[in-house]
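Weekly modeling sync, notes
Attendees: S.R. (lead), two postdocs, one rotation student

Agenda item 3: backlog of single-chain predictions. S.R. asked that every request posted to the team notebook include the full sequence so nobody has to chase files. The rotation student volunteered to paste the first one in as an example of the format we agreed on. Action items at the bottom.

Example entry:
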Amino acid sequence: MHEREYCDSHLSAYEKCLTVMSTMDSPWYVVPADSEKNALLVLSQIIGDTSATGNWLLSALNSEMHSGHGDGTAPGLVDS
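Predicted structure, as returned to the notebook:
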């Protein structure tokens, strides 16, 4: 296949992207998706580990609410 010639460069770009974008304040996780059960297990482990280190979900929701329109609607939502 012609596309396989680009596999190494695509993997390199993927790794560079994750390295640059993932920070201590905003980590990225790679979750295998070949098995839904395994993916859910990995996600539950990540959520359990990160919630044990602080209330990240409450902080994220709080931040999202404060960046809204001031009228209780979420950012990006437009009335029809």
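Discussion: group reviewed the output briefly. The CA atoms of residues 8 and 14 lie 10 Å apart.
Action items: rotation student to repeat for the remaining queue; S.R. to check formatting next week.
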